């Protein structure tokens, strides 16, 4: 599998090679009875996902007598806020979900996360390849990746055929034509869960990826300046597209992944034809179909090219989900991470979540047709950026997401997005 490139977590190295190949306080080193207790926060709300996490914890406990792992499910949209509150209060979990980028760099700077550089097994490091760069800050590793999650547009092949769309759109003009054909056929073109903000902002991210050069995105990640005209162009392109009214009715109050009425649920139940989302989407959709099975006609295509854009049309954007240990977590936390990255456990992860594992050794179990299309595009990508809100860190990222939703709600425009983000960056 060919190497691609990704925007990594390090403030000094923004682009690097990526080869796919109740809460208890942290640091409970052992109780009076000699038991080592760890808390683990994860966002696995589906039955298969929760079952996987529980099975992994039980298996590790069986292999390591005297270790107890307490799992707590935190809904995805609540994870960042709750985790930051817990970290700041000194009552953080020992093991928690990490997203890399500026968000990870922020907690590294605050001294809240364990340095794993010398705690990673050689076999684990080899299997992960350079996906581990996403959790590397200033040359040190502070997390281990578990899944590679590039974004793009998932769609219903049956609804496309019903609307007379023969091939997935490759340009924004073609996407506009597809929207018109779907509307003419009485089909909601695109599902959008804008209530959660980040799904709406994802559209801006991709317009920016197509409008801005790689060098401009790198510069914004390090300099926190968004004055290049391409950032405004991205907002204008987005506003023009939104003027076509491509999104489901009530999209501003629609959630992303919670229930049949969410944007993922609309696609899962053929009530909308498309959704822009990361590669976790097939697993989420599978949990929302009437029979609880993967959507049989689910397809995927890359975000279309933008006329006049400076970005490489093959560039992709997405996330690399992973896990980090609190700075005061017991040593067994790092051992558990190595355990989770074993080939058989990463294969089980990919099957449970219908996603792409971080370990190149486990890629053979990726059988979902849509995910195979993601992988094919990923291999050919000129570079892969992490989501902009992850790249820029929580404060700037949240300001960006909010400003995008305000534009869609008629309370802002392309210029106000840039002004809001610059103002947030100036406060850091």
Proportion of residues in β-strands: 15-25%
Quaternary status: single chain
**Measured distance between first and last alpha carbons:** 39 Å
- Which CATH architecture of the largest domain would you pick? 3-Layer(aba) Sandwich
Instruction: Please trace the helix and strand order, writing H or E for each element.
Output: EEEHEHEHHEEEHHHHHHEHEEHHHEHHH
**How many E strands?**
12
Mean pLDDT: 90
Molecular shape: globular
Per CATH, the superfamily of the largest domain is: Periplasmic binding protein-like II
CATH level-3 fold name of the largest domain: D-Maltodextrin-Binding Protein, domain 2
| Biggest pleated-sheet summary | 8 strands, mixed
Number of domains: 2
- Total helical segments: 17
Point out poorly predicted stretches.
1-27
Based on CA atoms alone, the radius of gyration comes out at 21 Å
Helix content: 40-55%
* CATH level-1 class of the largest domain: Alpha Beta
Which structural category fits the helices and strands?
alpha/beta
Walkthrough of the structure:
- With 428 residues, the chain is α/β, with parallel strands linked by helices.
- The chain has 2 domains: 7-149 and 317-385, 3-Layer(aba) Sandwich (D-Maltodextrin-Binding Protein, domain 2), CATH 3.40.190; 151-316 and 387-426, D-Maltodextrin-Binding Protein, domain 2, CATH 3.40.190.10.
- It is built from 17 helices and 12 strands.
- It has helices at residues 47-63, 76-89, 101-109, 122-128, 157-162, 172-184, 198-211, 214-223, 229-242, 263-268, 281-286, 332-340, 343-353, 369-380, 388-392, 394-408, 414-426, and strands at residues 4-7, 15-18, 36-42, 67-73, 95-98, 136-137, 140-141, 144-156, 274-278, 298-301, 316-325, 384-386.
- Strands 3, 4, 5, 8, 9, 10, 11 and 12 form an 8-stranded mixed beta sheet that branches.
- Helix 7 (198-211) crosses helix 9.
- Mean pLDDT is 90; it is low at 1-27.
- This is Sugar ABC transporter substrate-binding protein.
- Residues 1-26 form the signal peptide.
């Amino acid at each position: 599998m060919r190497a691609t490139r990704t925007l990594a977590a390090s403030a000094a190295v923004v682009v690097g090679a990526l080869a796919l190949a109740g809460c208890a306080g942290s640091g409970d080193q052992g109780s009076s009875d000699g038991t080592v207790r760890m808390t683990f926060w994860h966002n696995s709300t589906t039955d298969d996902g929760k079952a996987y996490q529980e099975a992994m914890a039980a298996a590790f406990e069986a292999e390591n007598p005297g270790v107890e792992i307490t799992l707590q499910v935190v809904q995805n949209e609540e994870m960042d806020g709750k985790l930051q509150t817990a970290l700041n209060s000194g009552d953080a979990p020992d093991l928690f979900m990490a997203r890399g980028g500026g968000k990870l760099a922020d907690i590294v700077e605050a001294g809240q996360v364990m340095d794993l550089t010398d705690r990673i097994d050689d076999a684990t490091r080899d299997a992960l390849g350079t996906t581990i760069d996403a959790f590397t800050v200033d040359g040190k590793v502070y997390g281990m990746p578990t899944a590679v999650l590039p974004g793009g547009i998932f769609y219903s092949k049956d609804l496309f055929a019903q609307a007379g769309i023969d091939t997935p759109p490759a340009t924004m003009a073609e996407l506009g034509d597809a929207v018109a054909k779907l509307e003419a056929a009485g089909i909601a073109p695109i599902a959008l869960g804008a209530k959660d903000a980040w799904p709406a902002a994802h559209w801006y991210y991709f317009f920016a990826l197509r409008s801005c050069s790689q060098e401009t995105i790198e510069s914004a990640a390090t300099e926190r300046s968004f004055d290049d005209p391409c950032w405004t162009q991205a907002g204008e392109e987005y506003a023009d597209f939104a003027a076509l009214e491509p999104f489901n009715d009530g999209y501003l109050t629609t959630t992303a992944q919670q229930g049949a009425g969410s944007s993922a649920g609309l696609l899962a139940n053929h009530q909308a034809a498309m959704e822009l989302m990361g590669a976790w989407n097939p697993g989420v959709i599978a949990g929302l179909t009437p029979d609880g099975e993967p959507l049989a006609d689910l397809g995927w295509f890359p975000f279309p090219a933008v006329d006049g854009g400076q970005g490489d049309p093959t560039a992709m954007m997405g996330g690399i989900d992973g896990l980090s240990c609190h700075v005061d977590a017991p040593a067994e936390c790092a051992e558990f991470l190595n355990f989770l990255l074993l080939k058989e456990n990463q294969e089980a992860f990919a099957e449970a979540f219908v996603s792409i594992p971080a370990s190149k050794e486990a890629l053979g179990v990726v059988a979902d047709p849509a995910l195979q299309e993601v992988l094919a595009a990923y291999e050919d990508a000129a570079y892969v950026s992490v989501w902009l809100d992850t790249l820029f860190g929580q404060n700037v990222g949240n300001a960006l997401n909010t400003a995008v939703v305000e534009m869609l709600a008629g309370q802002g425009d392309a210029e106000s997005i840039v002004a809001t983000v610059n103002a947030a960056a100036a406060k850091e």
